[in-house]
Amino acid sequence: LVFLGACNPYVLRRGSAVSAGLGLGTLPSAGRSSSSSASIPSVAAARSALRYRVHPLPEALLAHVWDYGALSPDDERLYVRSIVEGKLGKNAPGSGGSGGDDGVGPVNASDHQLTIVTNLLCTAHTFLRDLNTEDYATSLRDVDRFCKLFLHLHTWRRRRLKDDVKRLPVTAVPHNLAIRLFPHFLKCAVLALSQCYEMRLCNAQNRDAFRAAVARQLSEDGIYLTVQNLKAAVEFEQLDLFRRMDTTHHPNLAENEALLENVYCLTVSLFCRLPCFLIGKPGNSKTAAASIVHSSLRGPDSHDRLLQMFPGCSFFYYQGSEDSTSE
Prior knowledge:
Layout: H1 15-18, H2 35-48, H3 59-62, H4 73-88, H5 111-132, H6 140-159, H7 176-180, H8 184-196, H9 204-220, H10 227-242, H11 257-272, H12 286-296
Helix pairs in contact: 4-5, 4-6, 5-8, 5-9, 6-8, 6-11, 8-10, 10-11, 11-12
């Protein structure tokens, strides 16, 4: 018998990654009365400084370990192209998207379109790694998530009736004309890229810098869009989705940026069956967004006819704490 195992490295993060402060870390154990309870968060805090929450390998195995390292940029580009082509290309299986096959049809992306998407994904990976000073800030799993989001958005936009756009006045979102001129494939790519990469950035400056990097890459591929165009495209979709929600039990809600983004991210993640963490201080519309999504996604009984074409969701609530475990 030959045993093979793939292990993540036991390596500390760099300083900026540890102090990112996104709310997923653990509090210091100082001030706890029980030594047994204090050991749990202290161990968790020590592991939070690691790139991966793993245990060190026994010394007896170190002689048999091969350090695979990380993919080179050229190799990663080949893998990204292969994944994108297998999910979105002309030979991709299925009809694409979520919620069943109702004649939406496959994406059937051309070689040029696949090249554009590959360049955008590599640009996003490079940006996040440079921003976090970490080679492990992104992985090929993000590419797979991007493809799932793209397929859902492809189905969503194909199912959406043309007259549904009349819900929004022409002046509802700035740069509306540029949004309407977006080709279908490009808009799906921009929206999926935003959900998969941009939304994880926790301040406006980094998001603007990310959009600028995307705009530069698109210009190199012969597509000229501004940072404002990219931002407006996402805002348009967020507002359109929010106005399809059932807000009967939430009257007089302000359509602020945080609420629209939270509702959009939660809904798209649920349809794509992707994990989503809403992190922020009290008052950032996290609970309100979850409540609106809960009351709106009811399958055939949904308030909006487009939402009726997608599955309903069942919600289960769990109150976590520092002492909570995966069991």
